[in-house]
Structures are given as C-alpha cells and as structure tokens.
Amino acid sequence: MSTPRTISDETHRRPFAWLRALGPEGRRAFTGAFGGYGLDAYDFYALPLSTVAIAAYFGLTGGQTGLLVTATMVASGVGGALAGALADRIGRMRALLATVLTYAVFTVACGLATDYGTLLVFRALQGIGFGGEWAVGAVLVAEYTSARHRGRTLAAVQSAWAVGWGLAVLVYTAVFGLLEQELAWRVMFFTGALPALLVLWIRKHVRDAPAAARERAARRRPLADIFRRGMLRTTVFASLMATGVQGGYYTLATWVPSYLADDRGFAVVTTGGFIAAQIAGAFTGYLTGGRLTDLLGRKKTIAVFAALSAGCILGYTRVPDGADGLLLVLGFPLGFCMSAIFSGFGSFLAELYPTAVRATGQGFTYNAGRGLGACFPALVGALADSWGVGGALAFGALAYAIGALALLGLPETRGRELV
Description:
The protein is mostly helical. It has one domain: Up-down Bundle (Growth Hormone, Chain: A). Helix content is 77%, strand content 0%. It has helices spanning 7-13, 17-20, 23-45, 51-58, 62-90, 92-110, 116-142, 150-158, 160-178, 181-190, 195-205, 210-218, 232-263, 268-295, 298-316, 324-340, 345-351, 358-373, 375-387, 389-392, 395-406. It is globular and about 55 Å long. Keywords: Membrane, Transmembrane, Transmembrane helix. Residues 29-414 form the Major facilitator superfamily (MFS) profile domain.
C-alpha cells in the first residue's frame, strides 16, 4: 500500500510552489534578477540581429563581424569574474545595480560609434556589464531558494533570456521594417537604454539574503580562494563545462540570423518569424529543463541536452534549399535544446561553492566559459567567408561535446543545501 502524501508534499507539487516558497523578499529578488537578465538578453541581441546592416555599413569581413561578438564575450569573462568578487565584498544587490547600469550605458554608446574600432571598444565595455549580471542575479536568487525548488527557480530566471530575446526580435522587426538599415542598427542600440529604468526599482526594493549578508560581514575572501586546494578542480572543470555549452550557444545566437538572411536569402520579417520559432522553443526549454534538473539531477540534464543541441545544429544547417517549412519546424527543437541546457546552470554552479566565495566562483566559471567560448563564434566568422555560414556553424556541435566531457570532473549536487 502506498504511503499517503502529506499536506507539505502536496503544497510543494502545486504550480508555482517554488515562487510562493521564496517569500516576499525572495520574490522581489527574483523579479530584479529576472528583469535584469531579460534586458541583458535584449541588449546582447541588438548586435547579432544587426550584424548584416553593421557589416554593410562599415564594410566588414566575416572575421571582423565575428570579432565584435568575441570581444563582447571575452570582456564578459572579465566582467563576470570582477562582478562575482564584488558581490562577495559589497553585496549581491549593489553589484547587480552596477552590472545593469554598465551594460545599458555602453549598449547605447554602440549606437554612436563612427567607425569599426570605436564600435569594437564600446561593445567590449558593454560585455563587462553583460558578463556580470547573470552571475550576480543567479546567486542572489539561489540564496533565497531551498534545495527542493532551486532548479526550477533558477530555470525561471534563465527563462527571462527568451523574453528579452523575443522583445529584441519584435523591436528589430519594427525598426528595420520602418527605417533604412544605415540608421536602423543605431536605433536598435539606442533602445538598450531600457535597463536603466530597472536600476531604480532594484535599488528601492531588492535586498541580499540574510545568510549572505552575515557571511560578508564576517569575512571577505579574494578571487584567489577559488583556485586553492579543494576548489581548484571544481573551478577548472566548471569553467570547461561553461566554455563548451556557451561556445555552442553563442555560435548559434550570433550566426543564425546571418545564416537565415545570407545563406537562405530571407527578408527581415521572414527572418524574425523563423527566429520566433526558436524563441518559443527556448522559453519552453528553460522551464522544462528546470523541472528535469530537479528530477534527474544537474549533470544528467546538462549531458542530455548537450547531445541533443549538437544534433539539432547539424540537422538545422543541412536542411535542403526550398524546404523552408522544415527549417521553421526545426527552429522549435533547436531553441528548446540550446536553452534547456542552461536551466541547471544557476543551481549547479551555486551549489559547487560555499557562501563566502559563491558569487566569486559562479561569476568566474560561468564567464570564463563565455570568454573562452567566444572563440567558436570567431572561428565560424573566419570560416564563413569560404564555407558559408551554414557549413561553418557545424563547429558549434564540437563545443557542446567539450561541455559534456567536462561533467566527468564535477560532482552531482542535486539536493545540496547552501552553506
């Protein structure tokens, strides 16, 4: 005979039980992190969606275009490490404010660039804030969340990326539909000022979790601590995992719009429609992956979606000419798999480190992965001139293989309480 479920068990299984379990302070922290990450995605996609227009305006090669994303990602690695260390010193909320304001200011500055070199510098500076926001926001929310709900809660924060991505595509479709592309790409960057409004709300309503505030007051540890004996192995393998997964993701994020426009010959509105299928898959994938990471564990979920993402890349870029309906259909599973793999990242990385260096460890490993993973979009850009974007995109599958192999050096953390 089965054991009757307790009221507590039933409560935990209700829809959005994870959100109610956060409490008022935790829900405000969630809102701040969700908004920050969504607008982070919006500002990031201002570049990939505008690459065709920017390349035409400045007369860029594929390699030069790819370098814009590479500069963003490398700088984000630096920014993430700095923001994580800053969050362990001055607090999660204050560090979150600094990162959101930084990426907003320099996204707008990109729209003022008069030459390629200036745009490259502004984009790199934008990357510093872009790299720091997720690491700080994810730790802020993780420290309000119980082990039972952490996977789903952090996956919900990750789903904000799909929301920001979708908003960027809507604005892109409108702006490029109404304006000449010589002006439209600048207007896209100007709309990146939106996150500045979020700063005011965060400053008024968001506070650090009590445990993190107590730990910060008691002791302050430098970045070097995550490389000491006992943590070095974790830091190395977590960075490699993040490198592979993000190398694959940002290869797709950077080059799929160009693939649809150049290799497939789609107009702006058509490109927006095909990307919308990926976004729908991405949002569903984030939430589904969050449930799976709590059921199956962090490592299994990441490994499964690494394999599926690699397969989706190869399938998507080998759809025959004229089979546009199949390409549209495949957009959903592509977006689903490449996003679901991130659902366990926030909880997994937070659980790998103790409170005193949690933001430092998470900020460094996640964004070291961004910086190193940036080699893949640059490689695709360099090869695209001779292989075509579709052919070069296959290298994204290699990145996912690296991420899956790195899991062999990490422990499973499902159910681990944060201490």
